[in-house]
Amino acid sequence: MKVLEAASYLGGLVSLVLIVIQLRADAAQRRTQTAFEFVRQFGNSPMSDHRAVLLRMWLPYSDQLAVINQQGMPEKEIAALIELVLTEVDKQTSPNGVVAIHEIADFYDQLLICEESGACDPKVIRNYFSSYGHSFRCLYQKVVEAQAAATGAPDLGKGIREIGGSAPCTRAG
Question: From CA 143, how far away is CA 8, in angstroms rounded?
């Protein structure tokens, strides 16, 4: 009888361990699914529309953008170029470039909240979004900072800074 009782307890313990393992696996799968939902959102409208606005605004300035990406450019020169580009795009498109920048920065803030809360898999978030986030931060950080100050939202752009990383943006000056 004691052997049967011990076997019963052991079976119960094994069952509990397996349940915990399954619950952890399910939670990890939910975090991955949630992160991939953000990937899907980033690839679809309206986020793809905002990225397209930013891409189109750089088409006439592709040579300057290549210099920024390949050789670097002093921060002041980048800021002046972005001001020029935004002025031109705002004359031509709707939504304008500043709105597109704001929406992408806000999206990255949502990504960071998802990651920090444990609802998203940080590996998926970082692997997919960090490269674009770094480029975005390097080009538009000053614009995002101005929007944060103007709107009274000091944390606007925190996601870009965190997910995009703090690697240097320029190699020159």
Answer: 65
Tell me the per-residue pLDDT of 78-131, one tens digit each, with 9 for 90 and over.
888 888 888 776 566 555 888 999 999 999 999 999 999 999 999 999 999 999
Calpha distance 145→163 (Å, rounded): 16
Q: Which residues, 6+ apart, have CB-to-CB distance to 100 below 8 Å?
A: 49, 50, 51, 53, 54
Residue recorded with tokens 């614009």: 143
Tell me the pLDDT band of 173, cut-offs 50, 70 and 90.
very low
Is residue 38 within 8 Å of residue 120, measured between CB atoms? Answer: yes
Helix (H) or strand (E) holding 44: none
- Please report, for residues 5, 6, 23, 34, 57, the alpha-carbon distance to residue 9 in angstroms, rounded to integers and kept in the order given: 6, 5, 21, 37, 68
Nearest alpha-carbon partner for 170 in 66, 35, 73? 73
Say whether 29 sits in a helix, a strand or coil: helix
Greatest alpha-carbon pair distance for the chain in Å reads: 86
**What is d(CA 118, CA 3) in angstroms, rounded to the nearest whole number?**
43
Is the distance from CB of 64 to CB of 82 less than 8 angstroms? no
The residue assigned the tokens 């793809």 is: 48
Instruction: Say what the pTM is.
Output: 0.80
Sequence-ordered list of residues with C-beta below 8 angstroms from that of 87, at least 6 positions apart, any chain = none
